[in-house]
Amino acid sequence: MNSWFVRQTFRxxxxxxxxxxxxxxxxxxxATMSIKPSRWPELQFRDSMHLWxxxxxxxxxxxxxxxxxxxxxxxxxxxxxxxQPQEHEYxxxxxxxxxxxxxxxxxxxxxxxxxxxxxxxxxxxxxxxLEREVQRLIAKEGDYKAYYYIPKDGHTMRAYRNAMExxxxxxxxxxxxx
Length: 178
What we know:
mainly alpha
């Protein structure tokens, strides 16, 4: 249960019944025991956070210490003739090399991804520009059954005409323009 909710409920209870601020101890003692909401969820959350911070932080610290002490930074060496270096091989520190190889995108991938997003937006804009032009021409010419034409079948129109004729016989609307 949420400790904030428990505290609010307890405060409301104190305001409603001010005489029950504490509970008397048995055997005639005059000391009172104040009733408080439990702090167990807060303490449990704090303990869990400490545990996970120590597990994750300790692991990262151990890997970093091992890498720095036993592996160390890379040194420059001549590149063999038949070797084609990859992007991650240019970084001196092993952790940075691993991150560049497995986590980060290479500059070429990032550039191509950006080009793809620009291409998608351009395609979307051209498509909507063409659609707006078609709508404008249809509205201007009025010669195509599309956005400005509501199709109706004969059965619906006959039923509508009969209803209008019955209404005009009773003294309602005129049907001259139908």
